[in-house]
Amino acid sequence: MVASLQTTTNSFSQEFLIGEGSLGRVYKADFSNGKIMAIKKIDNAALSLQEEDNFLEAVSNMSRLRHPNMVSLAGHCAEHGQHLLVYEYVGNGSLHDMLQFSEDGSKILTWNARVRVALGTARALEYLHKVCSPSVVHRNFKSANILLDEELNPHMSDFVQGAKDQKEIETGRVGKKLEQRSKGNHGEGLSTVVLDPKGRSTNS
C-alpha cells in the first residue's frame, strides 16, 4: 500500500508538496483512475510511543467524521513504520493564502464570500463541539487550516481528535491543553480560548 501511494506522489517528491501540517507534510496524489487526493506523511519523530497510540485512536475517530465543511479522511496506511493519511483534495488554497498572498484579482474574496466562509467554518466547529460524541477539540484552528474549493466553500483541515468530557471540563484540563499547544506551536501574542473550571471561556 505504501508503495502504491509513493507512486502517486513520485516518491513524495518536492514537486508534489502542497503544504505542511502539525504532524507532517502534505502531498498531492494523482491516481491512475484520474482521482486526485491529498496524502499527509506523518513525521514519526514527532510521535512518542504513547502519542502513537493516541494518534491511532484519533485516526479511527476522525475516519467517522463527516461534514460538508470539513476535509474528509478517506484512508490510513501504516506499513514499515510509516503512517500515511489520505484526504480528499481541496485545490483552491487556504483562506490564509487567499487573504494574504493572492495577486489574482479573480480570487479576491468579496464580503459575501467572506460571510459564506465564516458561516461554513462556524458550522464545522459546531459539528465538532455539539454533534460529535465525544466532542472534538480542533487544537490547531487558524486560517491556514481552512481550505477553499473552487466555489470558495470552506473545508476545515488538520483537526486533532480530543475527548472533551465533563471531567476534563471540570478540572480545566482542556483549557490547559489548548493553551500549551498554542504557546508551543505559534509563539506568544496569540489569543487562546481557555475553559475555566466551570466550563466558561475566557481569552488570554
Architecture overview:
- With 204 residues, this protein is of the alpha+beta class.
- It has one domain: Orthogonal Bundle (Transferase(Phosphotransferase), domain 1), CATH 1.10.510.
- Helix content is 33%, strand content 22%.
- The protein is built from 6 helices and 9 strands.
- The strands form 3 sheets. The chain has a 5-stranded antiparallel beta sheet, with helices on one face. The chain has a two-stranded antiparallel ribbon with strand order 6-7.
- Strand 8 (193-195) and strand 9 (201-203) form a beta hairpin.
- The protein starts with a helix and ends with a strand.
Q: What is the overall shape?
A: globular
Mean model confidence by pLDDT: 77
State the end-to-end CA separation: 45 Å
Number of DSSP-assigned strands = 9
Secondary structure layout:
Elements: H1 2-8, E1 17-20, E2 24-30, E3 36-42, H2 49-62, E4 73-79, E5 82-88, H3 95-100, H4 111-131, E6 146-148, E7 154-156, H5 166-171, H6 173-186, E8 193-195, E9 201-203
Highlighted features:
204 residues; alpha+beta; 6 helices; globular; protein kinase activity
